């Protein structure tokens, strides 16, 4: 998709707060940038460079409790709330999680949302983010959906409730776009881009993502959902696993130590059987990082697939530690690439040229090979 506004870049405000839902903040943040939209992430009482802690909610099937929550990534804000100039933005996006409950009580936030509503600029809210819209009087007389437990508050605020039959539903009423959960991020983001004036046509491309246990959380989910926004068919596979099986993910953050911290993230649900993968039926390959590449690099079937994509000169995107698979495949000779700084010593023997990962969001392109130092560079990687 080109820039929705043509020559003039669209600019969106992402309204954040502590313990907002992890995917509902980062996936739109990076996906919108990949599609040419400038995104300023702000939170009341915080400045550019400060962080908001995110929350990961996971459904618990075996108990009466619907969801459990764990700590997610540290989301770094890139703008200061007190310096917002309303007229500079074309749209507003509000993630869900627990933060909307508190944002809805902040007078400055409510006044800001009311300005967007009165101006009829596009507003997108997902999951519990609609609570902020209700507080600002922005849902009265509007059709909207949300996470089911938000229904009473929206109905009380005068909204026309749309009952979601799945957790992926998106609803549009004039300038208001609402979604149920991050499972529906591809449709939610697509609808918001359309509201901003974008014109997304389905690419029809088929993309393969190979991952394993403890793949980096963002490095599998952001490419997967962003490519689906574009209309790509995306299959995510893991050796010895089938469609419907899961891979636990790892949350990795740079927090001032010599290397990144790590905790367990979501369980990513695979979409296809590894045994049925045929490289000739795909147009591109994505290799996320995390812990899994060092194990995947020992799997001969994975190595064969990597070689087939490279020999066919199909696009290959490697993020962070994904290079370890390409090193094992022996396909980096004469190539220029980047990756996580900690694996430099491992990959310099590959016969290629390692570009220093400074800054950490650096990306490098060499013919059909696109590499990113870490998940921070995914907006550029996915362009």
Automatic annotation (TrEMBL):
Pfam families: DJ-1_PfpI. SUPFAM superfamilies: Class I glutamine amidotransferase-like (SSF52317). It comes from Prunus persica (Peach). InterPro entries: C56_PfpI-like (IPR006286), Class_I_gatase-like (IPR029062), DJ-1/PfpI (IPR002818). One of its GO terms (biological process) is guanine deglycation. It comes from the Eukaryota. This is DJ-1/PfpI domain-containing protein. Residues 10-194, 205-381 form the DJ-1/PfpI domain. CDD domains: GATase1_PfpI_1. Belongs to the peptidase C56 family. One of its GO terms (molecular function) is glyoxalase III activity.
């Amino acid at each position: 998709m080109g820039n929705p506004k043509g020559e003039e870049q669209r600019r969106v405000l992402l309204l954040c707060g502590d313990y907002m839902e992890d995917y509902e903040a980062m996936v739109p943040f990076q996906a919108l940038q990949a599609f040419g939209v400038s995104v300023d992430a702000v939170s009341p009482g915080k400045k550019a460079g400060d962080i908001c802690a995110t929350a990961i909610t996971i459904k618990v099937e075996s108990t009466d409790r619907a969801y459990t929550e764990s700590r997610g990534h540290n989301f770094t804000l890139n703008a200061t709330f007190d310096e917002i100039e309303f007229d500079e933005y074309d749209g507003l996006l509000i993630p869900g999680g627990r933060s909307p409950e508190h944002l809805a009580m902040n007078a400055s936030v409510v006044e800001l949302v009311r300005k967007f509503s009165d101006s009829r600029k596009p507003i997108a809210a997902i999951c519990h983010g609609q609570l902020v819209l209700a507080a600002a009087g922005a849902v009265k007389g509007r059709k909207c959906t949300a996470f089911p437990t938000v229904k009473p508050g929206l109905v009380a605020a005068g909204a026309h409730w749309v009952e979601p039959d799945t957790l992926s539903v998106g609803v549009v009423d004039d300038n208001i776009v609402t979604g149920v959960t991050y499972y529906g991020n591809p449709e939610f983001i697509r609808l918001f881009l359309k509201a901003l004036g974008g014109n997304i046509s389905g690419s029809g491309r088929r993309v393969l993502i190979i991952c394993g246990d403890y793949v980096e959380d963002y490095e599998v989910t952001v490419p997967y959902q962003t490519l689906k926004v574009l209309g790509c068919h995306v299959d995510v596979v893991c050796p010895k696993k089938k469609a419907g099986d899961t891979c636990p993910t790892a949350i990795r953050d740079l927090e001032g130590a010599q290397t990144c911290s790590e905790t367990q993230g979501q369980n990513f649900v695979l979409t296809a059987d590894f045994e049925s993968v045929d490289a000739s039926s795909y147009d591109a390959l994505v290799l996320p990082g995390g812990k899994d590449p060092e194990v995947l690099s020992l799997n001969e079937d994975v190595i064969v697939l990597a070689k087939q994509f490279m020999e066919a000169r199909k696009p290959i995107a490697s993020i962070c530690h994904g290079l370890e698979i390409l090193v094992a495949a022996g396909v980096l000779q004469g190539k220029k690439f980047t990756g996580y700084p900690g694996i430099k010593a491992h990959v310099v023997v590959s016969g290629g040229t390692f570009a220093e990962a400074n800054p950490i969001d650096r990306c490098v392109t060499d013919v059909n090979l696109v590499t990113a130092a870490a998940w921070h560079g995914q907006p550029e990687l996915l362009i």
